[in-house]
Amino acid sequence: MTIKRVLVVDDEIHIVHVVAIKLRNNGYEVLTAENGEQAYEIASVEKPDIIVTDCQMPVMDGLELVKKLRSDEELKNIPVIMLTARSFDIDEDIKQNLNISECLSKPFSPKELLRNIEDVLFSTATNI
Amino acid sequence: MRIQRKIFVVITLSAALMLIIQGLASINAGFGERFAGQMQQLGPVVSACYFVIAAGIVWFAWSWFRTLVGIENLTELVKNGSSPSINYKDNCLVGLNFAINNFLQNNRQEINEANELYRDLKLDVQLSERKKLNTEAIIYSIRDAVVVVDSSDRVAMANDAAGKLFSFDCKNIELRPITELVDVDQKEFIDFLVSARKNKAKATRRELNFASDDGVRTFDCIVSCIHDRKGKVCGAVAVLHDVTREKEIAQMKNDFVSHVSHELKTPLASILAYSEMLNDGEANDEQTKQEFYSVIQTQAKRLNRLIEDILNISRIESGLVKVEKEAVSLTITIQEQLQMIRGYAEEKNIKVISPASIVFDQVYVDKDMISQVVVNLLSNAVKYTRSGGKITIATQVNDADQTVRVSVTDTGVGIPADEVDHVFDKFYRVGANKKQAKGTGLGLNLVKQIVEKVHGGKVFVQSEKDVGSTFGFELPLATREMVESV
Predict the structure, then answer these.
(1) CATH number of B325-485
(2) Which CATH number fits domain B142-242: 2.60.260.20, 3.30.420.40, 1.10.10.10, 3.30.450.20?
(3) Model ipTM?
(4) B321 CA to centre of own chain
(5) Cβ separation of B262 and A86 shorter than 8 Å?
């Protein structure tokens, strides 16, 4: 089994750090970015297996990043898990349209995030 | 009248008898002395007849004279309406007089009643007129726009605010159809008013937008039907209340809740994630554990700071803040606060030029609060300045005004001209710069509240988009006595 690569995007360095440790401890390879723009550049080059991104970020926010990914032929199928600290959940329609696999609200549990990543990667694998 | 009639008969009979006797006497003259003896015997009867006739004529004349006087008096009475003091006891006019008097009295009573009624009605009319004027004055002076239409949708009344809103002369509406007075652009209002009237709804409400010189304004429009005494709808009244400001405030509150919850949740997310990792034994070595503890600690402090900011603004606004003033050197305060952000500035490769010390730059302030002002201005400057930029801090004493002026100038993203005036507003964030850095929109408001409300100073800002901004404040210099008393 190949090692799965996860791109973690958040402008909060501590969040990126803690998610990276959790994932590395569980056998994942972790790439990090601090905003949507940077994440898109890394994703274009590295083609990660899954992206975990914060929603509200400077320069380019999470939703814009997903829109950009979905309109890119090479990146449109990368599953995305969104983390959000907004007071309201992301609209179900937007979630469907942008094919966002899961939305987790902050504060979140790293354990739960890991479970979600595994679920998404596993279901993607069985679909193929 | 009966007596008069009898007397008249007696006089007539007497006259007739006398004429017969006179006739017989003349015939007698023709037929000789045949009846001369009998005629002479009738002499006393003729005398009596003459006497009766004469007496009757005198009485009759007197009676008619009195009747004439009575009629004249009655005429006067009818003419003047006053009752004459004439005794008609045995005159035929007594009845007439009585009848006329009665009639006049009744009339007078009726006239009096009518007069009273007229006076009451006049008062009622005056009262109604005054009530109408009062009502109109009230309606005219209402700040909300009020439009009243009749059952044919003609404008029966509209106040100044309505005239202003729909651009018509409210004093000159003359029952013109509403479609003539109100612009086609505001058709939604006409449709709503007309349909509400037709539906006979007691009160219906809708939010309507109107384009005005200062942008789109939102009105809360309530239309209520007017019912006549029989309960039939005879028109409708529309009241339009401008809720633009309320909506803006509601939006600001929503934005605030959204920002603040994001800001509160971010450190909380770190605290919970790191503590869960520690609990689950994900920190493999002592160094990692220490690192996790330290993150939890700094994030808890950050959370506390944010809560303090919110509380401070709230306390200052409500006047409950505890202020402990002392003589403080602004230059020294700036140097102290600079230490806190120097690392952040170096990370972004931003050059910071700090002020040279001034001989006397003491202000009488709450040191913690002014430190907060300085750190907020400095951290904003770093936040909104791109890597490789420059920040210049200057202090200047104005001897004439006895004030100290502190300014923080950056070479950052700047603020668009139409937004500069709002940067000190609570929760306000410059739209174009939201992506540049995170914030709650509280920092500059706190600066303004502390400088102006607590210390009687003044904040200022100058900015040019893509060139940079200068933020700063002025505070009154402390007097020598204030400094020495400390």
Answers:
(1) 3.30.565.10
(2) 3.30.450.20
(3) 0.91
(4) 37
(5) yes
